[in-house]
Write a structure and sequence with these properties.
This protein has 422 residues and is of the alpha+beta class. It is built from eleven helices and twelve strands. It is elongated.
Length: 422
């Protein structure tokens, strides 16, 4: 019937979604709930909301090809957006735990609930930044179970609470539904073209972006609920409590930053320095070998790389007979993604520490000298592509294998490091 269609940029739909999500929530909250908070809590909530708006706006408006887009990308870790999300989860935990302590003598059940809520959100804050869930095989099941338990406990407590306090429980339930339910729902929607009838979509919708935005609002509502509980427990805070609220984000950011310095301190004081450059700008900055155990060799590596080039990387640690050149033992290990300690280092190559262990065959220590050899590789389809060493201050066994040490004998010690090759 119609021989034409309307073109709608996918970018515009993202903005429409944000407005439809945030405007009703903010209007209701700022009319009904925010005025019930102390002035300091109001400023804290408004500051977090403005920080969210800034992060979302920059992430959407900054072109993906821009060099600085990664720093604001809502779907990445260890950038401004993930740091903000982690900080807001930590604020929920801090306010819930503070309210639990204040309620401890006059509302035991409520205090116990808030304490459990605070501990859960404290773990979630750490998980948001360090991706701790990658260590658990069925982490989604655990998250769903914990979320359901929190929702049930909140609902039970809401039914037992007086009407003024019930609003905070309802706010938390809505926030939990948005943060958890939104993540589950959008996970089943693919990134791609969407059929809108006579409306033609220009570009593709990235539903993972909608997921992150929905989670942002859900966490903010949970923060509002926790702030409401805290202000109800302490209706007339003194001036130093107000200053403490303003300092809470820094209280969380300080240990994140301190932890981010650990690999650099290890590299400086505990490792043997190295300067080996592999393909795709991956560099070995240092290592530490412990071969004192008869059964195994323990190697601690410190690799520098851009995050995008670190993904898919792997290491092979081998023990090679110095006389015959044969490999007598070998262990292949993927680069551990959870070893990302770095924090907001734009333009820098962060240090990724990694521990490798290689079992020593029986009799190897007594059968002449053996070289401890390291090689880097990447998954390439069904196989593995070796990463060539472009320059090295360590001896090279070939163009991709670096000799880091020796087990017995003195053959490796007699090797002169080759000149750096550019």
């Amino acid at each position: 019937m119609f021989d034409f269609d309307f073109v709608i940029p996918a970018h515009s739909l993202n903005i429409v979604y944000i407005l439809l999500l945030y405007l009703p929530a903010c209007l209701v909250c700022y009319r009904k709930l925010i005025p019930r908070l102390s002035l300091a809590a109001q400023r804290l909530l408004s500051g977090m909301l403005l920080a969210q708006a800034l992060a979302i706006a920059v992430a959407i408006l900054l072109p993906a090809a821009d060099l600085w887009h990664w720093l604001w990308d809502l779907n990445r870790e260890f950038n401004i957006s993930s740091t903000l999300a982690s900080t807001q989860l930590a604020l929920v935990a801090c306010l819930a735990l503070a309210a639990a302590w204040l309620f401890r003598s006059r509302a035991g059940l409520r205090s116990l609930y808030l304490c459990a809520l605070g501990l859960v959100f404290l773990f979630m804050a750490a998980d948001e930044y360090y991706a701790l869930h990658e260590e658990f095989l069925h982490w989604k099941r655990y998250y769903v179970a914990v979320g359901a338990a929190l929702a049930l406990a909140t609902l039970v407590l809401a039914l037992r609470s007086p009407r003024p306090a019930r609003a905070w429980h309802v706010c938390f339930l809505i926030g939990l539904a948005l943060a958890g339910g939104g993540a589950v729902f959008y996970e089943f929607l693919a990134v791609g073209d969407v059929d809108l009838g006579i409306l033609r979509l220009e570009g593709s919708l990235d539903f993972s972006l909608w997921e992150e935005i929905t989670e942002f609002l859900g966490v903010w509502l949970a923060l509002l609920a926790a702030a409401g509980q805290f202000c109800e427990a302490l209706p007339a805070p003194k001036a130093h409590f107000a200053r403490l609220l303003y300092a809470l984000p820094l209280v969380w950011l300080a240990p994140l930053y301190a932890n981010a310095q650990l690999p650099y301190l290890e590299l400086r004081f505990l490792a043997q320095p190295a300067a080996v450059e592999f393909e795709r700008n991956v560099q070995l900055r240092g290592y530490r070998i412990d071969s004192s155990e008869a059964e195994a060799i323990h190697l601690r590596l410190y690799t520098a790389s851009k995050r995008g080039r670190y993904s898919g990387l792997g290491y092979t640690l081998s023990l090679v007979d110095a006389d015959s050149g044969e490999t007598v033992a070998s262990q292949r290990t993927r680069a551990a993604a959870h070893n990302r300690y770095w924090m907001l280092r734009p333009g820098a190559s962060p240090i990724y520490p990694q521990s490798l262990t290689l079992a020593v065959p029986d009799g190897a220590r007594e059968n002449g000298a053996h070289w401890i050899v390291l090689a880097l590789w990447r998954e390439d389809g069904a196989g593995f592509a070796r990463q060539k060493a472009l320059a090295s201050d360590q001896p090279l066994l070939d163009d991709a294998r670096v000799i880091l040490g020796e087990l017995g004998g003195s053959a490796a010690a007699s090797l002169d490091p080759p000149p750096a090759r550019q």
